[in-house]
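Re: beginner question about structure tokens

> Can someone show what the tokenized structure looks like for a real chain? I only ever see the sequence side.

Sure, here's an example I had lying around. Input first:
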Amino acid sequence: MSTMPVESLALAANRAAADFLETGSAHDLDVAVRDVARIWGGSRYQPTPEIQAMIQSILDRARTLVHPRAAACEHRVRERLDDGRLILENHRVLDLGDTSGGAIGSLVVLAASIGPELEIQTRALASQGRYAESTAMDAAGTALLLAWSRALTSGIEKMAGDRGGFIGRIVRPGVGGVPLERQVDLFSLVDAEAIQVRLNSSFLMEPIKSVSRFLLV
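And the corresponding structure tokens:
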């Protein structure tokens, strides 16, 4: 993994977010009915034509409630210690679990969200007893959030590839043995408040439809 200029990869994500907000909409996110159905009913779920029509209607409504946003920052990695911890250029020491493999030149810290509006609508549907619509709306939001995260990661990966590097590993707090408390480190390294994302006392992100990543490059 090659060392990148300090700004480039974070700028790739931030520029992608800015361009999307300026020229795109949630209708540009690559999400289909089958993606929502898989999240809603499981990988083997086969919805009837009537249910597919309902999911399509919910997905269309969900797109109007989604406002993608993202913040990213890149930090040069000075050293990887024998125990796998990383020392950043600002002398911060991070324990992100297994960082073995190729050389690590940079750490890109990413936070992204689709905003709170869909979550509010999901709760409103549930309060009206419209549970099928509520859970389908939630599944549509998850699918749209994952598509937004993929689009951002793809932009970073393309920029890295253009400069002869690649994303070696993506680390998510709370996943793969990485403690959820690592969210505190992540949020201290990127300005998530700029996109109205914060941590609660349980280290969970609010709005709920938000994601965070460490990308080792």
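Each token stands for a local structural state, so reading them left to right follows the chain. Residues 1-7 have pLDDT under 50 and may be disordered.
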